[in-house]
Design goal:
Number of domains: 1
Helix content: 25-40%
Structural class: alpha/beta
Number of strands: 12
Strand order of the largest sheet: 1-12-11-2-5-7-6-10
Distance between the termini: 13 Å
Strand content: 25-35%
CATH class: Alpha Beta
CATH architecture: 3-Layer(aba) Sandwich
CATH superfamily: Vaccinia Virus protein VP39
Number of helices: 6
Largest sheet: 8 strands, mixed
Shape: globular
CATH topology: Rossmann fold
Length: 239
């Protein structure tokens, strides 16, 4: 299996990708939280003047990447409550509403709460395909909870219950908003065929790339942060 990681902006990186070469685009872009995300191993800017500016930023990058996707490819866009509704409209416009497959909810337990609203404890992952009926999908299996199936497995639902990484987690590498390997392993295994190619154009600490390599997929990553690229490269080497 091969891997490629480059430092640079997603928009500038996308034209370098060969046409019809990517099986799965997983993008975990900045969420437009209005602040700089920072941790011991790096940081990144996460603020746009308006939500419309963020949507325009994302539109440019998705449009530039579409030629690299195979007709059988899938897109997983990982976002949160701030922009998920805007992003779904954007993907409907770019691909067609009939290309929508799932609105996945990644449920986790960490984070704060508020006396003025229900605690926000999930991210959204929008799952789209390029050709209905042609995209790859291998349903993930999770432990069954019903009395009848206890001890067995069942197909995962669109609500994914995988804990986020706490400060003491052994896989934490000190990069902000790092996602758990278990989550990316499930998504890559489900949506990218064996020996296929996974692209993460906001690769951060490299979790998507590590998951892809561990599952026998090719991995391509890009990030604006030199710290992120260095960290992702090291994790792939160690893996």
């Amino acid at each position: 299996m091969s891997h490629r990681i480059e430092q640079g902006d997603w928009l500038e990186f996308a034209p370098s990708l060969p046409r019809n070469s990517v099986d799965l685009l997983y993008a975990d872009p900045p969420f437009n939280t209005g602040k700089t995300q920072s941790a011991g191993a790096g940081s990144y800017h996460d603020s746009w003047a308006t939500t419309g500016d963020w949507v325009a930023w994302l539109r440019e990058r998705l449009e530039a990447t579409l030629p690299a996707l195979k007709p059988t490819a899938s897109i997983l866009l990982h976002i949160d409550w701030r922009t998920s509704h805007h992003a779904r409209v954007l993907l409907d416009e770019l691909l067609g509403a009939d290309r929508f497959v799932n609105h996945l909810v990644w449920m986790y337990g960490l984070g704060g709460s508020s006396p003025r609203r229900f605690a926000r404890k999930h991210d959204d992952i929008l799952f789209y395909c390029l050709e209905p009926g042609a995209y790859y999908f291998d349903p993930p299996m999770v432990p069954a909870t019903s009395r009848r199936m206890r001890g067995g497995l069942k197909k995962a639902t669109d609500v994914i219950d995988i804990p986020s990484l706490n400060n003491m987690a052994s896989e934490r590498v000190g990069y902000p908003t790092q996602k758990p390997l278990a989550l990316l392993g499930m998504l890559v295994g489900a949506c990218c065929p064996p020996a296929g190619t996974v692209l993460d154009p906001c690769c951060g600490s490299g979790t998507t790339l590590v998951a892809a390599r561990g599952l026998g997929r090719n991995a391509i990553g890009c990030d604006r942060s030199p710290d992120a690229v260095e960290l992702a490269t090291r994790r792939l080497t160690e893996a």
